[in-house]
Amino acid sequence: MSFTFKQFHIADSRCAMKVGTDGVLLGAWADVSQAHHVLDIGCGSGLISLMAAQRQPEAHVTAIELDASAALDARENVARSPFSDRIEVVEADVVKWAADSAQRGRFDCVISNPPYYEEDLLPPSQLRAQARHTAGGGLTFAALLRSVRLLLHDDHEYSSPTSRPSTFSVILPSQAQPRFCALAAIHGLNLTRRTDIVTRLSKPCKRVLLEFSPTARPLTHSVLTLLGDGSSRSAEYQALCEDFYL
């Protein structure tokens, strides 16, 4: 399949995790303002990396992906984009990569649309299980958070008090949020921003966008409704993604 956005095109035929609403929401919502070094963990076909590069023209984006086929999709999508000189696709296991001292503290912004299904019943495709499940070869929440903490700048490392605070942004099912936040706190990451995603106002929250930082700050909380009247996008959803959707 392929998807055309306003400034780039995504082909994801080799990628187990296809382009979807979760990735678009996270790519549009994550705070990349004033970021210089952005890391996209589990980049898949490169969607979020390309969105980050479009939104922050001064950022260098590193897109890390374990699966060779998905990394190939990402490289080709980046090469065709206007941002190819600012995005590097790395085929690697982020846990091992984060253990390399040369990578530690490199990034002021980390973003991930991670594997988040925790049940034991896995899909038959090993690559799909790896992309979507924390078990069966997928990246566990604990391993992800350990890696993020190693790779993310400590805020005191910035030379200027006006520099952006370092942040880690993620999208998860709402039921996974309490455990993920508890694990994040253990790894020194404080929840600073949360947006609950609902299809319609009357529907329960099924996804949540979360932002963490090494520095504790007051939590901001909001709700984003995806659909307005009928099946059309709500005004707030349209505004969030207006730079990307045709």
Description:
α1 runs parallel beside α2. The protein has an 8-stranded mixed β-sheet. It has a two-stranded antiparallel ribbon with strand order 1-2. It is built from 8 helices and 10 strands. It has helices at residues 21-29, 47-55, 68-79, 94-99, 126-132, 141-151, 177-186, 235-240; strands at residues 2-4, 9-11, 37-41, 60-65, 87-91, 109-112, 167-173, 190-198, 207-213, 220-225. The protein is globular, with a radius of gyration of 17 Å. The chain is an alpha/beta fold. The two termini are 17 Å apart.
Name the descriptors.
about 20% strand; two-stranded antiparallel ribbon; about 250 residues; globular; alpha/beta
In the sheet with the most strands, the strands line up as 5-4-3-6-7-9-8-10
Largest sheet properties:
8 strands, mixed
**Alpha-beta content class:** alpha/beta
Ranges where pLDDT stays below 50 over 5 or more residues in a row are 119-135
User: How far apart, in Å, are the first and last alpha carbons?
Assistant: 17 Å
Write down the Rg: 17 Å
Provide a count of the helices. Answer: 8
Q: What is the overall shape?
A: globular
Order of helices and strands: EEHEHEHEHEHHEHEEEH
